[in-house]
Amino acid sequence: NAGVMQNPRHLVRRRGQEARLRCSPMKGHSHVYWYRQLPEEGLKFMVYLQKENIIDESGMPKERFSAEFPKEGPSILRIQQVVRGDSAAYFCASSPRFEASEKLFFGSGTQLSVL
Amino acid sequence: EDQVTQSPEALRLQEGESSSLNCSYTVSGLRGLFWYRQDPGKGPEFLFTLYSAGEEKEKERLKATLTKKESFLHITAPKPEDSATYLCAVQAPGGSNYKLTFGKGTLLTVNP
How many CB atoms lie within 10 A of CB A71? Predict the structure, then answer.
């Protein structure tokens, strides 16, 4: 049973370019969460999605960032016109259902570097 | 705003030397406190969930405890393979079980 798959593992972009990060949840999981880990900071929640729905995007920056989880295919976190401050590790997590006790299963992350 | 503070930032132990990691939190109405382990280049891996003061959970050489203000992760007779960053996170009330607030972690190094 494959775990949460994220790709690419490393992504280098120049300022002003677009970054697309992909996440395939664990088999049987229908809830996806994106977290960001800035250097010297703890993981911070960004967005929670279910298939074709954004449930909570309260942690997403208001501009340049968007996320989707289509009916078919992986979840995508999109960052437009990247800036150096976007350099961070982006982690995706999934869970099979929405329960207070449900633990999150994390992928290995995408390390985004903006030159 | 919910806050989680972990100490120490880094801890170096000799194999077999027991110790504890601390996680202090301020949250209005704790729903759950989580411990995760993170290896270099990997995502966090779930260890424990604690829900109420006085609760304890164990897994191999690890034991997590919870009070009203902090949690401890006790490591008994650690081995080099226990080397990792240990993350503490809290879950606030309001239905947002997925919105965890993480601390910065404690980097544990166990020397053979």
Answer: 6
Nearest CA to B88 among B38, B18, B39, B53?
A: B38
Cβ A9 vs Cβ A113: under 8 Å: no
CA–CA separation, A87 and A12 (whole Å): 9
- What's the distance, CA A91 to chain centroid? 5
Give residue A40's region: left, alpha or beta (phi > 0; psi -120 to 50).
left
B46 vs A100: CB contact, 8 Å cut-off? no
Q: Which residue has the higher pLDDT, B94 or A105?
A: A105
Mean pLDDT calculated for residue range B80-93? 91
Closest alpha carbon to A59 in A16, A101, A20, A90 = A90
Is the Cβ pair B43, A31 closer than 8 Å? no
Domains contained in chain B, CATH given: 3-94 (2.60.40.10)
Contacts with B32 from chain A: Cβ below 8 Å: 100-101
Which tokens is B45 given?
A: 């891996």
Residue with tokens 């590790």: A89
Residue A27 carries which DSSP code? T
Q: Give the residue from chain B lying closest to A107, CA to CA.
A: B43
> What digits encode the pLDDT tens for the residues A61-76?
999 999 999 999 999 9
**Which pLDDT tens digit goes with each residue over A35-63?**
999 988 889 999 999 988 999 999 999 99
Query: Is the confidence at residue A1, as pLDDT, over 70?
Result: no
